[in-house]
Design goal:
heterodimer, A: about 170 residues, alpha/beta, GMP Synthetase, Chain A, domain 3, 4-stranded mixed sheet, two-stranded antiparallel sheet, 4 helices, B: about 375 residues, mainly alpha, Double Stranded RNA Binding Domain, 4-stranded antiparallel sheet, 4 strands, elongated
Chain lengths: ~170, ~375
């Protein structure tokens, strides 16, 4: 019995092949699904397609590391951006607008500026917000070894940033 | 035995008894109340009493004393309890909310430079301008996206801190640190090389990141007007030989580029050092330098050339033959000959050569 199994195994090994599937030739980026009663909120950022970047909408991160002759630490910038975005998303969970996908990161000199929108419809606690801003700035400054400024402005609710409903 | 009496005591204090006591009179609760209030007499009495007469058992609350959430909800639904409305926990903060600053401010009376002193991200509540940004498929049907909550306005760099008034203020503030540009140089630019013979060029690179330094900013280019060094002919030739390609024959400028040190200051010092060394080396006259012959010259000289001796012979002959010759013409021809021999030959220059020769010989 075992011997026959061994034989089967060796047979399988001989027939091993690379499994392939047909490529999914479908563009999924920038496609939004509409609802029957037009309740899906779209911000301006979502409404414009990826090929409109630089034409109708601008970038979510601004720095000079992608300029010719200034490419000193492009990967570092990408990693820093991700760290900052994740931190803001996790630190202001009640105040996020469109789940924190639209946070603008600008760099000027050695300063990193985080801009965008937060909402206060769920909770408005001014002293707490001041403390959190201070903490976030201090924490990110120490982490990234450069001054970080939060220039996040507050809107009342997500409806303020709504460009369209589909 | 003990156990039995215990049971007996327990059998007496049934729920029915309790109720009876509660309805009938306050007899039952009396001893208990006295216990709770902590009167010594009651305690003494208790100590004396045997078990059968009974210290009552403590109440056991299986259910909590308060009403449960489901219970209150049921009561509220049936209208037996009134619904309490509580104010929001962040009520005070919401009451403290003010209309945006742009509506409160009086744009004509206040100083904009105080509101927006430095570069900052666009803030819709502060800027009192009716701005809109963004594209719409049909602008006449629906206007472009409004100012509040507009991410495009936040993304772009703005120049709200660089208003003409702000720039004027800035200039006035730094005026005391500046000296006026020499007016003589403004009126006559040709004076510049004689007054300012050395010019130093460098580039500063502005970009961002954790490290804002750029290694390219260390390079120094120093351009010196050699004529203002006032070198002798020999020294100048030696300097030209030493400098090599750094010396531009046409403009008479010496260009020294230094980039071997780490900082700009070091490179600038090094450039000045190089110039000093070059100057003193050029002025030195070595013993072997006197062995230089005519053929070692950088440029071909008219004096001592075979052309000159031949021409002089010719002129002598012409004089003896009685022809009229011009003494000055030989010197003029010498100048032309020098440039002709030392620069690239062109048809124009060859024609000029012929013209000068005819003029000199009086043909």
């Amino acid at each position: 019995m075992l011997r026959s199994l061994q034989h089967v195994e060796s047979h399988i090994n001989q027939c091993r092949q690379i499994s392939t599937t047909s490529t999914l030739l479908k563009n999924r980026a920038g496609k939004t699904k509409s609802t029957s009663n037009r309740t899906q909120l779209l911000t301006y950022e979502m409404a414009q397609k990826p090929h409109h970047i630089g034409v109708r909408k601008s970038w979510l991160t601004w720095h000079s590391q992608n300029l010719e002759e200034f490419r000193q630490s492009q990967p570092l910038v990408v990693a820093q951006d991700e760290v900052v975005r994740r931190f803001i998303r996790g630190f202001f969970p009640q105040n996020l607008v469109v789940s924190g996908n639209e946070i603008v990161i600008k760099r000027r000199g050695n300063v990193l500026i985080v801009a965008g929108f937060l909402q206060y419809s769920r909770r408005l606690d001014i002293r707490r917000i001041y403390w959190m801003f201070g903490f976030a700035e201090e924490f990110l400054s120490i982490l990234l070894k450069q001054p970080v400024k939060l220039e996040l402005s507050f809107v009342e609710s997500e409806e303020t940033v709504a460009y369209n409903y589909i | 035995m003990h156990r039995l009496t215990h049971i007996g005591a327990r059998s007496k204090s049934t729920l029915a008894d309790k109720l009876r006591n509660a309805v009938g009179g306050a007899d039952y609760g009396k001893s208990k109340q006295a216990m709770v209030s902590g009167s010594l007499a009651a305690k003494d009495e208790n100590l004396k009493l045997p078990y059968s007469q009974g210290e009552d058992f403590r109440e056991l609350y299986v259910m909590p004393k308060r009403k449960l959430r489901g219970q209150t909800q049921l009561e509220q639904a049936t209208g037996r309890a009134e619904i309490k409305t509580r104010s929001r926990f962040d009520l005070m903060d919401r009451l403290a909310e003010r209309p945006p600053r742009s509506e409160e401010m009086d744009p004509e009376k206040q100083k904009w430079t105080d509101i927006w002193p430095a570069a900052r991200t666009f803030s819709a509540s502060v800027v009192p301008l009716p701005v809109r940004m963004g594209s719409r498929p049909n602008v006449e049907k629906r206007a472009p996206f409004k100012k509040e909550g507009n991410l495009e306005l936040v993304k772009i760099p703005n120049f709200l801190h660089l208003t003409p008034v702000a720039i004027q203020q800035h200039c006035e503030a730094i005026k005391k640190f500046c000296t006026p540009f020499p007016p003589e140089l403004l009126s006559d630019a040709s004076l510049t090389p004689s007054v300012l013979p050395i010019s130093v060029q460098y580039s500063t690179y502005i970009h961002q990141g954790t490290n804002i330094r750029d290694i390219r900013s260390r390079v120094i280019t120093m351009i010196v007007d050699v004529a203002s060094l006032k070198l002798s002919e020999n020294a100048l030739e030696k300097l030209v030989r030493l400098a090599g390609k750094r010396y531009n024959q046409e403009t008479g400028k010496l260009t020294i580029i230094t980039d071997r040190c780490h900082t700009r200051k070091q490179n600038q010092d090094y450039a000045h050092y190089l110039l000093t060394v070059l100057y003193h080396e050029a002025n030195k006259q070595e013993a072997w330098a006197e062995l230089k012959e005519r053929s070692d010259n950088l440029r071909v000289e008219f004096d001592g050339s075979t052309t000159k001796s031949k021409l002089e012979d010719l002129i002598e002959k012409a004089k003896s033959a009685g022809l009229k010759t011009d003494e000055k013409a030989l010197a003029e021809f010498g100048e032309m000959w020098k440039t002709y021999r030392n620069t690239e030959e062109t048809a124009e220059k060859t024609r000029e050569y012929g013209r000068q020769m005819k003029k000199m010989l009086g043909i």
